[in-house]
Amino acid sequence: MPRLDPGMARIRVKDLSLRTYIGIKEEEINNRQDVLINLTILYPASDAVQVNEIEHALNYRTITKAIIQHVEGNRFALLERLTQEILDLIMVHPAVRYAEVEVDKPHALRFAESVSITLTAHRD
């Protein structure tokens, strides 16, 4: 993860718990499953700090709502695809300099708590 330089803010959304169709087996295709999503987003926040108005900040509520709608409204065969689509939703916002998305699929493997995929993106 990139260093947090002065003027930059780090937003973390932890354990966003959603239900979606994820997987390749018949029972996964036919039944919603839980996924846990963790996000880290870096953006320049100098204006937000000085002005103290939402118009000058990256609105994490708007981003999270878009993610919820997308995840719950679609079907995914692979965790990689789901994770990339969430990352793409975040990177649509020009203020985002770096984003990291981790998606956990609880109980995907016998004897394991979960399986997760993490993807990142950045812009200069």
Give structural notes.
The chain has 124 residues and is of the alpha+beta class. 30% of the residues lie in helices and 38% in strands. The chain has helices at residues 26-30, 46-51, 60-72, 79-91; strands at residues 8-22, 33-44, 75-76, 98-106, 114-122. Strands 3-1-2-4-5 form a 5-stranded mixed beta sheet. Strand 4 and strand 5 form a beta hairpin. Helix 3 (60-72) packs antiparallel against helix 4. The longest helix has 13 residues, at 60-72. The chain starts with 7 loop residues before the first strand and ends with a strand.
Observed structural traits:
single chain, 124 residues, alpha+beta, 5-stranded mixed sheet, 4 helices, 5 strands, GTP-CH-I_C/QueF, isomerase
The total beta strand count reads 5
* Coarse morphology: elongated
Biggest sheet overview: 5 strands, mixed
Q: Which secondary-structure class do the elements indicate?
A: alpha+beta
Binned strand content: 35-45%
Write down the overall mean pLDDT: 93
List unreliable stretches of 5+ residues. Answer: none
Annotation field: number of helices: 4
Query: What Rg is obtained from the alpha carbons, in whole angstroms?
Result: 16 Å
| Sequence of secondary-structure elements | EHEHHEHEE
Distance between the termini: 14 Å
Helix content: 25-40%
Task: Please state how the strands of the largest beta sheet are arranged side by side.
Answer: 3-1-2-4-5
